[in-house]
Amino acid sequence: LGFTMVFFPALAQKTMVKITGEESIAFGHFGTLGYVFSAWLGSIFGKESKSTEEIKFPKRLSFLRDTSVAISLTMFVFFVLVSVIASFKEGFDPAMTTGINWFLFSVIQSLTFAGGVYIVLAGVRLLIAEIVPAFKGISEKIVPDAKPALDCPIVFPFAENAVLIGFLVSFAGGLAGLGILIALGSTLALPLILPGVIPHFFCGATAGVFGNATGGRKGAIIGAFGHGLLITFLPAFLMPVLGTLGFANTTFSDADFTAVGIVMGNIANYVQGYGLLAVSLLIFVAPIALTLLQPKKDKVAQAN
What does pTM read for this prediction? Predict the structure, then answer.
């Protein structure tokens, strides 16, 4: 776990510099593998594509430039769709479940969700303005050149249009992945992973920002869609592994947990006792050894 908490932020740092325009902030979230995958797709398919932040809305739709308005309208559509679908179920009364009219419930919940996102973005701006400089002052005395690795909303203010695009497209990728799992179910017997709003909003939005940083609009769309597929298939492949370890019908949605879980879970299944201990020690010692060897390489380079 400690190794992944250092390795994955380092893996994302190159794209983080493109997103933020500086090197003082690192990225720390257990979905980094999906974001790096999105950035890679963006670099391949989004060459010469304009940024999502250059999208020009007609004057009558200029209010959609406000992220809170766009998110509230999007979530309202989601809530209305779910309420309408649920109303067709025999014996289901939305008023009995929510206590209020389903339409009013959709309005309140969409505004509540948008308000929560606004608070998150305000917190991000506070982190950047106040806490990061304070961390730098402490780190210079303890670990020089260290960078704080912050959670995924840290990138939201840098590409607000990509946030909404990434969420919607990642969710679409999750639905497409669900369809593929259903089609493959008879041959591979894989579990069905339903796309969740929370992972696809926070992780999908972040994937959109990463894809936009390397490939503009095309990168945001293709990268987020690929991310949606990734966080659908990886949990499906992780579930059997966790089942053999005694955690039946359990999985994770974050790409880092699922990818590392598949690797380490299979190692734990096939390597027992001292062999498993040796693998764990190797993973622990490897980054320390690389750190100790790095200054020597620098000295050789300077001598040449």
Answer: 0.83
